[in-house]
Design a protein that fits this description.
The protein is an alpha/beta fold. Helices cover 63% and strands 11% of the residues. The strands form 2 sheets. A 6-stranded mixed beta sheet has the order 6-7-8-3-9-10, sandwiched between helices. The radius of gyration is 36 Å and the shape is elongated. The protein starts with a helix and ends with a helix. Bound molecules: adenosine-5'-triphosphate.
């Protein structure tokens, strides 16, 4: 998405609004740079003009002395030294204060922005994540979000303070000699043209760099999450090559950015040099003709440095702003991404489902051109155990995703307890489900906390009870740390069977009325399988259950079987007929 600079700035300030007090503090603190900067050359001027020369000490200094005080050469030296130390003290106190304030405000700004993006990403539908992948979102939260701090604290704040200092310096210079002021300002128009020209180019290049960096990150993420497969196939070098090609592109982009920056600074540097040369020429002329003292020339030359200083800060920061704006544009396009599964304006609260499901002519596609589910109509009664069978790619998991409202049907309606599921409050609706997947998902925390994921305030007794129901308690207490054992990333410190039993315990503790079992035993060995089957038998009791499985013995316990093929409901088998098992076998075997 291509946002204009003014839009990006406005939106960033809106985003930073809750922190306005601190940001205002930073901007106000920046005003102090003007008197501090103006005071810096004063000691030297007094030393030259009033110590070595015959000029009286400036009035605003004599004000602090008795009216009849005579300034000797030694006292002028003492005064200059004291002034240098005083100014340095104020300057350094100011630096410490502004540093701490910048860090505090900047970090709060970034933390809140990241949280805002993270919340939004979690709200986005699976369809978005399927399309974009996770690495891009991670890059945006981790790197692009930081640009809000860079823009407001590190770019705009110095630009503003430099602008104020610059104005102060130009006013002072006008008072000393307007010729000097004009020469000092003559560098501004060429500088403005250079900034405009380079920032346009930089914006384009930064866009490419950030995309390529994010692509490189997606390779890292993909490889690290599938390291076992990469190692098993001996593809480490291949993956390094893939990473290299992506980082190479990012590096080339960075070099282009560096080239544009370097050319820009070269031109700016030459512009300053021409300005300084004119200054020296004019200054020498005035001192020679006696129109100006040497002290005044020294001060004017120092001020020139202090005019070019802020000008340099402004030009550098205006260029750097482009990188921040590109990052923020990327984040805002993510924040503008609409949720595909939306909650209606006044959703219905849903306390506890009975489990009556009605599908009315439901169709679904991920991409317009490929229909995945076609015109499904069926009814499931509370407490039914529903087996879902069909060949690979038939649409079984997609059907489950519609039931849990991870996606909305493209056509048709799904009713639960007589109400269209789109009318329920989304969080209430999702609370009605417990899910046990083929590959159990654990978080890198303790076993106890993983079990309590479905009921965050669960007591120890509740966690232990759920673990017992899931046939998990015995293996858990055999670990030295018991329920406090760390599971490792994605539960990798545990065996597949242990992970699955923890996920069943999690379903027990949640005690949701509807249960989704997606091939829950397919990756288990025989010993684990019998214990898990037993635990699952306890779990499904009294709940409406949807079970995807290729196992005939599991289907045996289902009282209704939906047979899907190519997204169509081939058959609904009611499991109360004498020849049901034989029919399931026949159907099932023909479909795999
Ligand atoms: N996120 C997605 N985006 C696009 N197409 C998808 C997506 N997820 C699944 N599909 C496609 O939808 C079809 C049905 O997939 P689904 O996972 O529902 O099948 P399945 O019956 O569960 O298969 P399996 O038994 O192999 O798990 C497949 O052709 C698959 O390629």
């Amino acid at each position: 998405m291509n946002f204009s600079t003014s839009y990006l700035l406005k939106r960033s300030f809106d985003q930073a609004r809750p922190h306005w007090l601190y940001i205002a503090g930073i901007f106000i603190c920046n005003f102090f740079t003007v008197p501090i900067t103006l005071m810096k050359p004063l000691a030297l001027k007094i030393l030259i003009d009033s110590g070595f020369g015959a000029k009286p000490v400036p009035n605003f200094i004599t004000f602090f002395f008795p009216s009849n005080y005579e300034f000797s050469f030694a006292s002028v030296i003492g005064l200059s030294i004291s002034l240098v130390i005083f100014v340095a003290l104020i300057d350094n106190i100011y630096i410490v204060v502004i540093w701490l304030l910048n860090t505090y405000t900047g970090e709060r700004l970034v933390r809140d922005f990241r949280l805002h993006i993270f919340n939004h990403i979690q709200q986005l539908s699976l369809a978005y994540h399927d399309r974009k992948g996770t690495a891009e979102s991670v890059y945006k939260i981790q790197y692009d979000a930081y640009a809000i701090r860079t823009l407001i604290i590190e770019n705009l704040s110095p630009i503003l303070s430099s602008f104020i200092t610059l104005t102060g310096m130009i006013v002072v210079m006008l008072n000393i000699n307007w010729h000097f002021a004009i020469i000092a300002c003559s560098v501004i128009p060429p500088m403005a043209i250079l900034i405009r020209f380079s920032s346009k180019k930089l914006k384009k290049e930064w866009q490419k760099v950030k995309e390529n960096e994010s692509n490189a990150m997606s390779v890292i993420q993909e490889v690290l999450t599938s390291l076992r497969v990469v190692k098993a196939f001996g593809q480490e070098n291949g993956e390094s090559g893939r990473f290299m090609s992506k980082t190479d592109m990012a590096m080339k982009g960075q070099l282009k950015v560096a080239w544009i920056d370097a050319s820009f600074y070269f031109c700016i540097g030459m512009t300053y040099a021409i300005g300084t040369a004119l200054f020296i020429f004019l200054g020498a002329k005035y001192v020679y003709s006696g129109e100006m003292t040497l002290g005044e020339l020294t001060m004017v030359m120092t001020y020139l440095g202090q005019i070019y200083g802020p000008l340099d800060t402004i030009s550098r920061n205006l260029n750097e702003v482009q990188s921040s704006l590109v990052s923020l544009g990327r984040v805002y396009s993510l924040l503008d991404e609409e949720k595909e599964v939306k909650e209606i304006a006044n959703p219905v609260n849903f306390i506890r489902a009975n489990g009556l499901f009605e599908f009315h002519n439901v169709s679904f596609h991920y991409k317009k051109e490929t229909s995945i589910l076609n015109d499904l109509s069926f009814k499931i009664y509370p407490g039914d155990r529903v087996g879902i069978i069909g060949s690979t790619g038939a649409g079984k998991s997609t059907l489950i995703s519609l039931i849990t409202r991870f996606y909305d049907p493209t056509y048709g309606q799904i009713l639960v307890d007589g109400v269209n599921i789109k009318e329920y409050k989304l969080s209430d609706y999702r609370k009605q489900f417990s899910i046990v997947l083929q590959e159990p998902v654990l978080f890198s925390t303790t076993i106890g906390e993983n079990i309590a994921y479905g009921l965050p305030n669960a007591s120890k007794a509740e966690i232990t009870e759920a673990a017992k129901m899931a046939n998990a308690h015995n293996f858990i207490i055999n670990y030295p740390d018991g329920y406090d054992t760390l599971t490792g990333e994605r539960g990798m410190n545990l065996s597949g069977g242990e992970r699955q039993r923890i996920s069943i315990a999690r379903a027990f503790i949640k005690n949701a009325p509807i249960l989704i079992l997606d091939e829950p035993t397919s990756s288990l060995d025989v010993k684990n399988e019998s214990q898990i089957m037993e635990a699952m038998e306890r779990l499904v009791k009294g709940r409406t259950t949807f079970l995807i499985t290729h196992r005939l013995d599991m289907l045996n316990s289902c009282n209704i079987i939906l047979h899907l093929e190519k997204g169509c409901l081939e058959e609904i088998i009611i499991n109360n007929e004498t020849d049901t098992i034989a029919r399931i076998k026949a159907t099932f075997l023909s479909s795999i």
